Amino acid sequence: MTSGAEPQGPPGQARVPEERHGLDRLVAVVRGVAQVDLQSNPWTGLLFIVALFVGGWEFGAFGLLGTVVATATAYLLGVSWQERVSPGLEGFCGTLIGVSLVLYLDVRWMTVVLVIGGAIAGSVLTSALNVLLTPYALPTLTAPFCVITSVMVVGGPSFSRVWAEHAGAAPPSAASPGTAVTWTDFWQGTLSGVGQVFFQHPWYVGLIFLAGLFVAGWVTGLVALLSSAAGLLVGWALGAQAADLGAGLYGYNSVLTGLALGGTFVAVSRVSAVYALIGVVAAAGLTAGVTNLFAPVGGHTLTWPFVLVTWVFLAAVPMFTKVKRAG
Question: Which residues does the UniProt site feature Important for channel permeability point to (predicted)?
Fold first, then answer.
């Protein structure tokens, strides 16, 4: 049993608050990676980190760089340790900023600088959005990441040192057009949809991420798997390109939306399960719209569909007597 008091040190030695211990800081960073999928389990975060390094050392390294910088920024600026920093709520947008920028801009020193700057800006934006959205009981979700990465990628072509050797990221359908979906497209696309939350295409990397979600809870893992499959089926029904479906591009926003509306922010019930499914479908359908909206200016879909759909569905909850917010 714990009393909640700060730990005592040897006589004559000043007490050190728990949050200043090195291990606690490390766990906060690991939880920050897990919070990309709305989880605070550190074992889930460790599996996510393993998955990123399996996808490529650069994704693991830059993802951790963004997480550490964002977490440290919030801590040094005095954001509540117990409520925000320790559970990883200040780190996950930094994770996504790091992974996305190394994907779009390649491995260079300039990318390191941009990830550090982006993670710091993302931390400040996270706090600003918290102040603005808290009165409406809305979470920031991945909106800070979406804003920072969109601004950097859209503005990148204006700066030669940023854009000269950028890697780019054409959709798989650019090389393999066609709408005929095979069984391989379906099962690999379902697993890839889980991995694409972290911009990871290989199905086996998605499988590791899925394992991390099952570690957080079997219901959590099942919701993620079914949401990814549902997003893929929506894309298939609407006639999306098979290569994009097989790469999980229509599943990852549905995964996040399913996790958000399927127990994280909305209490679980039969009605809320249907409500979450509607959100999952909406996120998949919105994916193409957001993609086409950003394409002319060089932007990317990112997790904008998840953010927009989840905000709308959470904002609507007070009007529905049969749907309740979690907690």
Answer: 303
| Tokens 């994770």 sit on residue | 95
The 10s digit of each residue's pLDDT in 29-80 is: 999 999 999 999 999 999 999 999 999 999 999 999 999 999 999 999 999 9
Give residue for tokens 């090195």. Answer: 22
Closest CA to 196 of 232, 241, 247, 235: 247
14: confidence class by pLDDT, cuts 50, 70, 90: very low
Smallest CA-to-CA distance from 275 within 322, 242, 311 is with 322
Window from 8-12, 81-85, 105-109 with minimum mean pLDDT:
8-12
Tokens of 216: 């957080």
Q: Which of 180, 148, 153 is nearest to 166 (CA)?
A: 153
Give percent of the chain with pLDDT exceeding 70.
90
Asked if 247 and 196 count as a contact pair (C-beta separation under 8 A), the reply is yes
User: Which residue in 38, 40, 64 sits closest to 51, CA to CA?
Assistant: 64
Phi and psi angles of residue 316, each rounded to the nearest 5 degrees, phi first: -80, -15
**Residue 140: which pLDDT band, with cuts at 50, 70 and 90?**
very high
End-to-end CA distance of the chain: 24
